[in-house]
Amino acid sequence: MVKKDTEKELKDLEKKIGKVPKFFKELTVNEPEMFNLVMRFEQHIWDDGNLTRKTKKLIAIAIAAALRDQHAVRAQLAGAKNLGVTKGEIEEALRVTFLLSGMPAYVYGKAQLDEIMP
Fold first, then answer.
1. Regions of the chain short of the pLDDT cut 50
2. Closest to 75 measured CA to CA, from 9, 114, 15, 20
């Protein structure tokens, strides 16, 4: 059973990152201490500072595509959609991925994008 405070924390995090992964929600019950530590870290990373959440999300998508991590790409794209990041912005970020990580990373990210944001 997830506590009320924890539910609020998850909702607040979802507003910041767009989508909270299932495994992270499971930490609230299975490893509450780990959940609390990760939440502090997440808050620090995703709070707006010199970079906006949208910019940070674009960076996360580009990194996930460069790593060719299907789960991470799809999760980041779902979160981006919820934050109002446009398909055009993502395509531009993927072009930077292409420049630095090569054609396979670009194609990989673009295929995931076209599935999630047709």
1. none
2. 20
CATH of 53-116 among 1.10.760.10, 3.20.20.70, 1.10.1740.10, 1.20.1290.10: 1.20.1290.10
Burial 22-54, CB ≥16 within 10 A → b, else e:
eebbebbeeeeeebeeebeebeeebeeeeeebb
Whether the Cβ atoms of residue 20 and residue 83 lie closer than 8 Å to each other: no
User: What are the domain boundaries of the chain?
Assistant: 4-46, 53-116
> pTM value?
0.75
Residue 97 CB-half CA count within 13 A = 26
| Nearest in space to 13 (alpha carbons), one of 47, 59, 55, 54 | 47
